[in-house]
TrEMBL record:
Keywords: Glycolysis, Isomerase. SMART domains: PGAM. This is Histidine phosphatase family protein. The keyword Isomerase applies. Gene3D superfamilies: Phosphoglycerate mutase-like. InterPro entries: His_Pase_superF_clade-1, His_PPase_superfam, PG/BPGM_mutase_AS, PGM_Phosphatase.
Length: 212
């Protein structure tokens, strides 16, 4: 039997997370708490052997990945396929303003993601397709190994939905994807088993630790 272990995490908290702005393909810096969250996960994974680290090519994910990798001499590979969903004209905008300006699409985004589409945006299905394609490549490349992927909320949600066989209209059901929360999938002879899903047991304090 061959088991390949995939760890998937979200980047640490960013300035735009605090401001409740949509990021998508745009970026903002990690907050001090976001850096701390990445450090917590780095320590939480200290006893885990990793063969490789992959990250979304967005700065917030790459920076998180660098902190988690720490002193390990591991190649960190940036992947466009793991970038957050492209939100087109929504990017950089305040979430509450978008709810007022685009009530139907805001409802679709959070309630029926298959229907979501604004000018310049990707579909949730397209994100799932590109992220899954890359994940399958990584699984083939690191068969029998252990890999960490640092990415974004929607990417994690659509990947985990694939492994759970979860319907797209249930995408936002719990668990919540907190910054640097951990998912783990063990794939044994092609059969996946979800071991962790949105785990935050590595958080070293609850004070502000759950900020999104």
């Amino acid at each position: 039997m061959t088991t390949t272990t995939i760890y998937i995490t979200r980047h640490g908290q960013t300035e735009w997370n605090v401001q409740k702005r949509m990021q998508g393909h745009q970026d903002s810096e990690l907050t001090p708490l976001g850096v701390q969250q990445a450090e917590w996960l780095s320590r939480g994974l200290q006893g885990v052997h990793l063969d490789a680290v992959y990250a979304s090519s967005s700065t917030r994910a790459l920076r998180t990945a660098e902190i988690i990798r720490g002193e390990r001499t591991l190649l960190l590979t940036a992947c466009d396929e793991f970038k957050e969903i492209g939100m087109g004209v929504w990017e950089g905008r305040d979430s509450a303003e978008l709810e007022l300006q685009y009530p139907e699409q805001h409802l679709f985004f959070w309630g029926d993601p298959e229907q979501f589409s604004v000018e310049g945006s990707e579909t949730f299905a397209a994100v799932q397709e590109r992220a899954l394609r890359k994940l399958r490549e990584i699984i083939d490349l690191h068969a029998g190994g252990t890999v960490l992927i640092v990415t974004h909320t929607v990417v994690i949600k659509v990947l985990m939905a694939y492994f759970e066989d979860r319907a797209m209209n249930k995408l936002w059901d719990l668990p919540y994807i907190y910054p640097t929360c951990l998912c783990r999938i063990d794939i044994t002879d092609g059969v996946p088993e979800i071991v962790l899903h949105g785990d935050t047991s590595h958080y070293e304090t609850s004070e502000n630790g759950m900020e999104s």
